Structures are given as C-alpha cells and as structure tokens.
C-alpha cells in the first residue's frame, strides 16, 4: 500500500503529524535524542535486517499493505487476510473477529487518528476495525478496494477502487470519482494529502489533484503528463516526489517539475511505491528490488543482499524509524542499530574472531580462525595467511611492542612478527611445545612476555629467543595463561585458568587470593583511575592499582550485573563500562560497578544489548587477548563468534531507555473470553474459578529487553515479575473489589510512563453471604449437640466391651511373651555364630593363609585405589615386585614345609620394614608386591636395597632371628614409579620388567 501518511505532508501535513502523534501516544521504545531513522551515511550492510514469511506466522508471504496503529502494532495485509505484529510474533488472522476477511485479500491499510484501522479488501469492500470490532463501512460500493488510502483533516477516508477510480467515505456516505468525473484513469496507484486538504491522485495515465469539487491536471504539458504514476511522497521542504512506473523519479515543487538524475541505477525499473523517511532519504519500491536515494546518489537492494523478494509491494516507516518492505515473499524490516558489525559482508572470510587491535598507524587488525585481517582507514580489508608467512591461520592473540611492531600468536604455530608486510616465526621453542599463544605483552626493557597453554615465556625481541619459562613449578596458578598486562609500576599481571598472579619488580610471583583459587581468568583490561578489570568465568573482579601495592575486590561484589561469565571489559571514558559476555554486550555505569549496592529482586545494574541492537550474535569471545579494544577515535571493538561488534562514540548515546505503555490484550473468565467495558469494573459472577489476563507492550526495536511487572491490589500490593510471560492467572478469588495493574520495564531502563489497569469485582458465593452463614452456624450447633449425645452413649458401650477384651488378650499375651523370650535367646546365639564366621571369612578374603599378609585380591584393590589417587593429585607412587631367588631348590632340597617357613619369615621381614601407609602382600608363589604411596623412585630403591641386604644378611647363613634353622635365601627386587602410565596394570608390568632385569643380571639385586 502506498498510503500518503499525513506526517509526510508540507506545513499542514506536519501539523497533522504532530497532532496525530499526540493522539496516538505511541510510547514505544524510543531513542534518547529522538526517534531514530535509517542513517543516510550507513550502507545497507550495517542495518539490522529481519524478514518474516509464512514460516514465521504470516497467513501468506505476499504482503501488499502495511500500517501501524495507535497501540504500536504493525498490521500487514495479505491475500489470505490480515495479521498483526507485536515485535515478537504475528497474530489476529486466526481470530474469530477477522473471520470475514479470511481469503478476502487485503490490499490497503490505514491507521486513522481516532485509533481505528481502515481495511480495504479485494472483493469484500472496506472495513473499519476499532475496539475489537470489525464493521463494513462501505457495503454499497462497487468494485474492489485498491492498494492506497488516506484520511483528511475532516476524518474522511479516501481509498482507491482498483480499476474503478476513487472513493470518498464520509461517515455512512460514499462518493466515487472516476474518468467520468475528470480523473485521467480509473486505475489509481497512489494518493497524497497536500496543502489545504487537496488530494493528489496518481493514476495509470497521469497525476490529478482534487480541490473541493474540482479535478485538475497539474502536470498537463509536461513530459509525464500521461505517465503511469507509481507513487507520490511528501518532501520535507513542502514539495513532493513523483515516481513513474517506467520513466524514473521527479521532484515537483511550486508547479516546477525536475527529473532526478538516477536513471543509471533505475535502468527503466518498474517502480511500485515511494516514501521519504524522516531523515530525508527517498525509498522506492519496484519489481526489481528496493532503491535508496540520498543526496543525489542511489543504490539498489535485491535478493542478493538479503531482500526476501525483488517485487516490492509496499513501503512503511514505523514510529521507531524502521523501514518495512512488503514483498511477494514476505515482509522485511530495516532499522539502525547501536552496534555495527565487521563481518563477512565487510570481507571477513571467517566470522569467528578472536582478537582485535589498532596499531599506531590507525590500522585495525582482526584475528580470526582463517587468518589475520587488516582494515585500513578506507575500510578495505586485507587478509594475511600462510602466503604471508603465518604457520597457522588460526590467529588467537595480538600484541604491539614499544616500537609499534605487530606480533601475532597462533594455535599451535607459535609466535609471529610482522615486518615488511610478511610474518616470520619467532621463538621456535614456543612452536615446538605445540601450545596455543593466547596473550602477548611488551615490557619496558624491550622484552616480550607470551602467555600460552604451556605457561609463561619471556622472549628477547632482539634475537627472537626464549629467555625464561614459568609453569606451575615456578609459582603460576595454572600453566594455561589467558591474559597478560603490564601496569605503570612495571608489575606483570598474569591471568590463568587457575587464578590470577602478579610478578613484581623483583621477579617474584604472588598469587591474588581475592580472585579465587581455580577461577578461570579470561581477560585483563585497564580502566581509568588506576583500575584493572579482571574478567573471570565466575564474574567480574576489580584491582585498584597503587604505586607499591594493590587492592583486589572479590568477584562476589559484582553480583548485581546481569551475567556471571565475562570475556572482555572496556571503559568508554564517559562514565560507562561495557562488558562482552555470552548473553550479549552489557553496559553499566562505572560507579555502580565500582561501588555496587544491593539490587532489588529481578533487577540488575546493566543493560544487555543483543541482536535487536545490532549485535551479530550474543556470543562474545574471550580467553585470548585483546578480545576488546578502544581505538584512538573512541570506538569500542569486541570480538564475537560472528564478527567484530563496533560501538562508535555517537552510538553510545543512543541507548534505548523508554518502555512502551502496556495494554491489556485479552481477558478470559473460566476459559471464556470477556470484553471489559471502558471505565467499568469487570464483574465476576459467583462461582467464577479462574481469570486469565493477557497483556502486551509493543516495542519493535528491542522486544527481547521488555519485562513485565503486575499486581492485584486487594490481594497483594507487591509487584510481581512476570519472568518473560505475558499473562497473569488468578484462581478462586474471595469476594471483594480488586484492581489489576501491569507496567513494563526495559532491561536497564526506566518503567513505562503509565500502567494498564482493570478493576475487578468478585461477587460473593452462596456460602459467603451473611444469612447463609448464620443459618449454617445454627444448624451446626444443633447437629453437634445431637452427635455428642449419641457419641457418649456409644462410648459407654464400647468401654465395657473393651475392658473384657483387654483382660482376655492380656492372658494370651503372657503366654506369647514366654515363647518369644525363648526364641529370642536362640536367635541371639545364632547371630553370634554368624558374626564370628563372617569375621573369619573377611579375614580369609584379604589375607594370605600361609603368610598372614595381604593376598592377591586385597593387593589389587589397594593398587587400584592408590593409582587413582596418585593420578588425581599428581603425587608420587611406587610399586615393587620381589621374588625369592632359586626358591624351587628350597622346596626340592629341604621340603615344602621348609619352603613355607621361609615364606613366612620373608613376609614378616617385608611387613616390618614397611610404613603404615604402605601395603605388602603375597602376589603369588614366592613373589611379593609392595605398594609405596607418596614414594618416588629414588626413595623406593633405597627401601628395597635395605630389604635386600636384610634378607641376604639374615637368611644367607640360614638363621633368621627367633626362627628355626632355615636354608639360606636371597631376594631380587623390581621397582617402578608412576610416570605416564594410563593404567595400574601398565605400572605393574614395568615393575615386572625390572624384576626380570634383576633376575637376568644375577639375582639378589634391586632394579628400577
């Protein structure tokens, strides 16, 4: 629909526009400093674009007409009826109220100053929708409604009749104008309300103006006297734009006609609609796409740029400055966002950005998973990859040394330096470790500090060699270093996956416990007034830097922020802090974060910017530096999963702060819809069980930020957070008078200027009336007296029977008691025997029956537990396999009884030599296993050497202390300590190999 909106007229039109806005009261989510149109200096690629079709809820993908009503809804006319958009979803087309319009084909829409909606259909006439009622207002009119309509100052509706001319509807009177009345053609394609109430009519054979009862031809004698007029639009200076279907666009002012020099871009395009927005940009729809004309230059938007279809049916500018484009394949909306994007449309070959930095020459560097990109001052992007010397195209971090040289850290490819337009690998040791370089910081002495997944490295920039390396053994909380920062006192701050540390001027590493042990530090960002922001997976912490000391504020103090995991932090210099997180971009006042106060329930201190504000995605990136950057011009840059988010200084002042006025959308009582009468309370009949109240606040710019609060005074005066819902439900209200109130709140902004209210009167039920309660009370008293008398008589009878029963049962119980005492005594004796047998079995299951030490099963259990503990804690563990040398000779030469005696003596020697935490047992035959926790290899070898000497010394002569004569024996030992073993079986296998080595070397030896 190419509706001539009164807001596009000259002085008269602007007067009407002002009055209309005052009447409509569109308290939508407006920008500070005025309603934001589409900036003339931005390319299409920087506008926020959304499109909808039948897949998103439209009744048909062809959108022929667009309008916005007083309550903020956007209405869409399609061949299958009408639909309504509230910023999130489409509705109405399935409503019984609009049943007459299903399949009727809505060709034109007009929102009147009184708040009604005029609907022109293809074959069902013209309808008026107001206060949830649909009424046909021109039943006697012949022909179908066309695609344009307007309202004049008197409230008359002018609407085209497709191929039958023009109709004027005044109340219940309809007058038609056609060729017979002086129109150049009955095919009317555009209307415009001009000065003094003149109606300008664009037809298929020229332009006409209706002045009172006369029809004049203002273009007679011009080159387009009989041209097909596709659209008329008001100019801000009081003139008009005239679009012809095939001859281009003209400017008409004070009788002078001027053709605009846009033929090259139009290329004989077939124009269909025309509109000038509030900033003076001219938009033209055609069957070849959408055109934009600014200051003498033009550009075209087609399906290749994301437009749903090249066939544009209607153009409409909403109250928030967004441009709606109805096409044959859905509706599109373009609007300006606070956040701009550097992404694939600007030349990035990979959306996943890791780091961003501006060098001293003003060139912007963007690290991605597909190389490094440089954006020069002319905004062109140049890619650096393997061809320019990068070993790995996955660039994670960037840094500048004191000479302005650019350094790049990669994933597994090490550290690179840029010189002469090419990158070269520096510090080959870094590359050999295969670690990912996640942060780079330059020291004052010319050295470079590199944080990686393998620790902290100091690199000499002169020769490119690693000077020193720190890991957990050197005091780092974790070897995985994410962030580095040098403060003015030459302290190096080191953020790791395990916490924060600082290296002071003396080279000592000091942990910062306030950040929390184990906290994953994702970035370190300097702020004003000697602040250092610490972003962690647990929240945001703050370091106050002083000359010789520092103060750390714990993470818990930042709890009022609407998120807990942060990736990068920037201060904008005008009192705000900007935080990139996994839910979007958060803006909060610096003072509120530095000195937080307890927020009210459900409230935070920050505003979250999401995709509705231009963010390419809600997912920001971190754990690589710098993931956020403030340029010399004051721009704020943040790395995200879909490009770089950019905030310009002017954009930061355009944050949405106003909340739309709420509306009560519908009311249902016990599932049945009801329509409250304005100014009258809603009376609920006695017996009503449930009331459902649905509400809405229409905002097209940031519906995802909108929050609702409601209360029912008379039941609860406290406001309740709707928590994302748009409905309040109350069940079984007591009789009385209530007042339902709902208000809206924009996240981080103010409350709505007004509240929507609904007075409710719940009539009393029968049981709540006074006379019913008195009658019921008297009846209850009589009933109680009767019941008590009957109860007393019954209790007397029952007491007699109970006494007799108790006496008989007591005698029976005495007999049963004696029987139970006998059975209980037998059971006690049996349980004692079972317990004794269980203890013996448990001992047999753990001990070797011959030697009295642990058996193979118990050793396996102990080894599994100790191995798991050592792997988990990183503590040492050693195991020893010991075997008696030539034990078969003892059995063959002295008897098996003597061999058993030798095994017992050796077992006791091994057991006495071990600590309480050690385990010793018979592993099988003459082989023993020692499990030595907290024992490294060297210590285990010493223990085994003492045991070897003891056994060789005391049993070599055949006489062990306190024992019978035994044959001389020696013992060999195989020792293994935990290294890279993945299982305990692997550890045992290595000990067994060492035992074999001892045997092979001559026995009576210790090998490890």
Which shape, going by the Cα principal axes? Answer: flat
Per DSSP, the total helix count is: 10
Structural class: alpha+beta
User: Regarding quaternary structure, how should these chains be classified?
Assistant: single chain
Major sheet: size, sense and barrel closure?
Answer: 5 strands, mixed
Helix content: 10-25%
* Strand order within the widest beta sheet: 59-65-64-61-62
N-to-C CA distance: 90 Å
Rounded to an integer in angstroms, the radius of gyration calculated over CA atoms is 43 Å
Number of β-strand runs = 70
What's the mean pLDDT score? Answer: 86
Strand content range: 35-45%
pLDDT below 50 for ≥5 consecutive residues: which ranges? 1-35
Structure description:
Helix 7 (887-894) crosses helix 8 and helix 8 packs across helix 9 (937-955). A hairpin with a 4-residue loop joins strand 40 and strand 41. This protein is α+β, with helices and mostly antiparallel strands and 1008 residues long. 18% of the residues lie in helices and 37% in strands. The protein has a five-stranded mixed beta sheet with strand order 59-65-64-61-62, with no helix packed on it. Strands 67-68-66-69-70 form a five-stranded mixed beta sheet, sandwiched between helices.
Q: In a few lines, what is going on in this structure?
A:
With 1008 residues, this protein is α+β, with helices and mostly antiparallel strands.
Topology (elements, then pairings):
Layout: H1 11-24, E1 48-52, E2 65-68, E3 74-78, E4 81-85, E5 90-91, E6 106-111, E7 117-121, E8 126-130, E9 133-136, E10 149-151, E11 157-160, E12 166-170, E13 173-177, E14 188-193, E15 199-203, E16 206-211, E17 214-216, E18 229-234, E19 240-244, E20 249-253, E21 256-259, H2 263-266, E22 271-276, E23 282-286, E24 289-294, E25 297-301, E26 312-317, E27 323-327, E28 330-335, E29 340-342, E30 353-358, E31 364-368, E32 371-375, E33 381-384, E34 395-400, E35 406-410, E36 415-419, E37 422-426, H3 428-433, E38 437-442, E39 447-452, E40 455-460, E41 465-470, E42 481-486, E43 492-496, E44 499-503, E45 509-511, E46 521-526, E47 531-536, E48 539-545, E49 550-553, E50 566-571, E51 576-581, E52 584-589, H4 590-594, E53 607-609, E54 628-630, E55 636-640, E56 643-647, E57 663-669, E58 672-674, E59 682-684, E60 690-696, E61 706-713, E62 716-721, E63 727-731, E64 736-746, E65 756-762, H5 770-846, H6 856-873, E66 877-884, H7 887-894, H8 896-913, E67 919-924, E68 927-933, H9 937-955, E69 971-977, H10 984-1000, E70 1006-1007
Parallel strand pairs: 59-65, 69-70
Antiparallel strand pairs: 1-28, 2-3, 3-4, 4-5, 6-7, 7-8, 8-9, 10-11, 11-12, 12-13, 14-15, 15-16, 16-17, 18-19, 19-20, 20-21, 22-23, 23-24, 24-25, 26-27, 27-28, 29-56, 30-31, 31-32, 32-33, 34-35, 35-36, 36-37, 38-39, 39-40, 40-41, 42-43, 43-44, 44-45, 46-47, 47-48, 48-49, 50-51, 51-52, 52-53, ...
Helix pairs in contact: 7-8, 8-9
């Amino acid at each position: 629909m190419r509706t001539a909106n009164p807001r596009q007229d000259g002085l008269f039109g602007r007067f009407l526009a002002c009055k209309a806005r005052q009447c409509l009261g569109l308290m939508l989510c407006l920008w500070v400093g005025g309603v934001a149109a589409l900036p003339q200096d931005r390319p299409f690629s920087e506008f926020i674009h959304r499109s909808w079709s039948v897949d998103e809820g439209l009744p048909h993908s062809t959108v022929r007409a667009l309008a916005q009503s007083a309550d903020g809804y956007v209405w869409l006319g399609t061949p299958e009826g009408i639909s309504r958009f509230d910023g999130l979803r489409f509705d109405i087309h399935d409503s019984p109220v609009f049943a007459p319009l299903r399949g009727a084909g809505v060709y034109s829409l007009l929102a009147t100053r009184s708040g009604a909606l005029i609907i022109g259909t293809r074959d069902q006439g013209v309808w008026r929708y107001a206060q949830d009622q649909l009424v046909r207002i021109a039943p006697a009119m012949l022909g179908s409604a066309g695609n344009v309509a307007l309202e004049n100052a008197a409230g008359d509706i002018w609407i085209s009749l497709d191929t039958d001319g023009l109709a004027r509807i005044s109340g219940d009177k309809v007058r038609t104008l056609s060729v017979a009345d002086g129109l150049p053609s009955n095919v009317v394609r555009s209307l415009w309300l001009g000065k003094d109430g003149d109606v300008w009519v664009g037809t298929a054979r020229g332009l006409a103006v209706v002045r009172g009862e006369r029809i004049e031809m203002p273009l007679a004698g011009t080159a387009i006297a009989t041209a097909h007029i596709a659209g008329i639009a008001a100019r801000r200076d009081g003139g008009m734009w005239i679009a012809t279907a095939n001859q281009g666009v003209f400017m008409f002012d004070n009788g002078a006609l001027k053709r605009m020099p846009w033929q090259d871009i139009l290329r004989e395009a077939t124009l269909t609609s025309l509109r000038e927005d509030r900033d003076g940009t001219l938009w033209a729809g055609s069957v070849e796409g959408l055109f934009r004309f600014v200051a003498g230059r033009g550009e075209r938007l087609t399906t290749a740029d994301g437009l749903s279809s090249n066939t544009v049916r209607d153009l409409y500018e909403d109250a928030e400055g967004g441009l709606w484009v109805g096409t044959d394949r859905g509706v599109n909306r373009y609007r300006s966002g606070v956040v701009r994007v550097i992404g694939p449309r600007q030349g990035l070959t990979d959306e996943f950005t890791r780091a961003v930095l501006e060098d001293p020459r003003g060139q912007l560097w963007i690290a991605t998973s597909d190389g490094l990109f440089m954006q020069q001052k002319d905004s062109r992007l140049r890619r650096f990859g393997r061809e320019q010397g990068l070993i790995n195209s996955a660039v994670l971090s960037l840094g500048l040394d004191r000479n302005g040289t650019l350094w790049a850290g990669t994933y597994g490819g090490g550290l690179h330096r840029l010189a002469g337009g090419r990158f070269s690998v520096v510090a080959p040791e870094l590359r050999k470790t295969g670690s990912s370089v996640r942060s780079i910081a330059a020291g004052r002495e010319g050295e470079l500090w590199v944080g990686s997944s393998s620790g902290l490295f100091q690199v000499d920039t002169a020769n490119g060699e690693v000077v020193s390396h720190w890991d957990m053994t050197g005091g780092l909380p974790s070897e995985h270093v994410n962030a580095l920062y040098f403060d003015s006192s030459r302290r190096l701050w080191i953020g790791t996956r395990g916490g924060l540390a600082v290296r002071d001027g003396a080279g000592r590493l000091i942990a910062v416990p306030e950040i929390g042990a184990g906290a994953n530090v994702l970035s370190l960002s300097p702020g004003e007034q000697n602040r250092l922001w610490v972003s962690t997976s647990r929240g945001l912490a703050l370091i106050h830097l002083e000359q010789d000391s520092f103060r750390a504020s714990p993470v818990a103090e930042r709890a009022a922020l609407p998120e807990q995991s942060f990736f990068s932090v920037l201060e904008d210099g005008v009192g705000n802090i900007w935080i990139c997180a996994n839910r979007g971009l958060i803006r909060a006042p610096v003072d509120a974060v530095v000195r937080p106060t307890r927020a009210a329930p459900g409230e935070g201190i920050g505003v979250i910017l999401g995709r509705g504000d231009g963010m390419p995605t809600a997912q920001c990136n971190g754990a690589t530096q710098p993931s956020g950057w403030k340029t010399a011009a004051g721009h704020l840059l943040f790395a995200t999963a879909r490009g770089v988010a950019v905030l310009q200084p002017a954009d930061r002042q355009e944050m949405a702060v106003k909340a739309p006025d709420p509306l009560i959308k519908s009311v249902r009582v016990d599932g049945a819809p009801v329509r409250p009468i304005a100014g009258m309370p809603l009376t609920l009949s006695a017996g009503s069980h449930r009331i459902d109240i649905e509400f809405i606040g229409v905002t097209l710019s940031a519906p995802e930020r909108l929050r609702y609060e409601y209360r029912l005074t008379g039941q609860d005066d406290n406001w309740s957070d709707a928590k994302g819902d748009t409905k309040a439900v109350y069940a079984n209200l007591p009789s009385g008078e209530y007042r339902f109130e709902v208000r809206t709140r924009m996240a981080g902004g103010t409350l709505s200027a007004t509240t929507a209210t609904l007075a409710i009167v719940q009539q009393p039920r029968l049981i709540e009336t006074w006379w019913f309660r008195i009658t019921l009370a008297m009846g209850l008293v009589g009933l109680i007296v009767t019941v008590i008398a009957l109860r007393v008589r019954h209790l007397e009878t029952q007491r007699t029977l109970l006494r007799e029963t108790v006496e008989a049962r007591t005698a029976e119980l005495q007999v049963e008691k004696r029987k139970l005492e006998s059975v209980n005594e037998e059971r006690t004796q049996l349980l004692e025997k079972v317990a004794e047998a269980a203890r013996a079995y448990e001992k047999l299951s753990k001990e070797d029956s011959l030697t009295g030490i642990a058996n193979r099963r118990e050793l396996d259990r102990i080894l599994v537990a100790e191995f798991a503990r050592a792997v988990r804690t990183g503590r040492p563990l050693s195991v020893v396999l010991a075997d008696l040398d030539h034990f078969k000779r003892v059995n063959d030469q002295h008897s098996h009884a003597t061999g058993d005696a030798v095994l017992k003596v050796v077992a006791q020697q091994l057991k006495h030599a071990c600590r309480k935490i050690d385990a010793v047992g018979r592993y099988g035959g003459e082989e023993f296993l020692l499990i030595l926790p907290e024992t490294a290899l060297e210590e285990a070898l010493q223990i085994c050497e003492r045991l070897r000497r003891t056994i060789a010394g005391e049993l070599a002569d055949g006489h062990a202390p306190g024992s019978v004569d035994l044959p001389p024996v020696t013992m060999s030992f195989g020792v293994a300590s935990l290294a890279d073993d993945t299982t305990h079986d692997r550890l045992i296998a290595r000990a067994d190999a060492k035992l074999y080595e001892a045997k092979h070397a001559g026995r009576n030896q210790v090998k490890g």
